[in-house]
Amino acid sequence: MRILVTGANGQLGSDVVDCLLQNGHEVIRAHKEDCDITDAAAVYGYFDSVAPEAVIHCAAYTAVDRAESDREACFAVNVTGSENVAKAAEKHRAKCVYISSDYVFDGEGEIPFETDGKKGPKNYYGLTKLEGENATLENCTRAFIVRISWVFGMNGGNFVKTIARISAENDEINVVDDQVGSPTYTKDVSRVLAEMVTTEKYGVYHVTNEGFCSWREFAGEIIKITGENCRVNPVTSAEYPRPALRPLNSRLSKRSLDENGFDRLPSWQNALARFLEEYRQ
Ligand SMILES: NC(=O)c1ccc[n+]([C@@H]2O[C@H](COP(=O)([O-])OP(=O)(O)OC[C@H]3O[C@@H](n4cnc5c(N)ncnc54)[C@H](OP(=O)(O)O)[C@@H]3O)[C@@H](O)[C@H]2O)c1
User: Fold this and answer.
1) Alpha carbon of 99 to ligand 1 centroid (Å)
2) Global pTM?
3) Residue 13: inside a domain, yes or no?
4) Which of 81, 166, 225, 231 has its CB 3.0 to 4.6 Å from that of 172, i.e. a possible disulfide?
């Protein structure tokens, strides 16, 4: 297939590109310089020139805390930009895979959210990701919504790299223990996306590595693997205030993945071990 990837330089986009190429697809890497998704004319022009059969839309405004004070820019990319991409995909009768987030949910309770669970973003970024989902579903008939969470990959700053670094520099660190979710390795998500995009099983999916943990437990596992001598002290979200609130419950149900015959991802511990092995080389 001829597949366009937005945000092709990003943490997820770069691994999506590699995975699609490995699967024998023709890949068009869209970068902000040649396809600024906030510019409708630029998006239409770009799609017209490359005529994709599908788009995997990884581009987004992802600075969660900055978004609270930079709302216009965040909205322009995540909502207007996603609407532009969905409309351009529709014009070309192309499939559109929109990458979304656990932050669309309200984070209440302790059970995993089903794909149609109660929405209620706790922060502005989450609100724009939800509106981006809606813009995609309203404007593209061949749409996949894929929610991921707690992402780590080789090509970007992320929690794993941060903990690996600060645990080497400190005897103890404080890490939030009351937010629970699933880490997600970009390479593992990419495999599912590469398979999904070849199907017509449109709909909403949750794609994360298997198992749940708190950020503290995640940090503990990172340090266990790296072998640093650093204690991880649990703190609450209230003790570690940030500009954007985070949901406490980010557990996502994989029911739609199962029902549509897609394999679940390996456990987050397995994914982390593979990532660190490569990262530490
Ligand atoms: N990271 C997480 O923990 C996480 C969690 C849940 C969901 N997600 C979602 O997963 C997806 C991928 O995230 P990521 O971590 O890979 O993000 P990322 O590394 O920040 O990459 C985002 C990409 O979007 C591009 N972009 C930004 N504004 C653009 C514009 N106006 N036009 C075209 N491209 C633009 C960026 O290009 P430049 O580099 O040139 O600015 C960058 O390549 C996003 O939809 C995000 O919301 C991420």
Assistant:
1) 9
2) 0.97
3) yes
4) 231
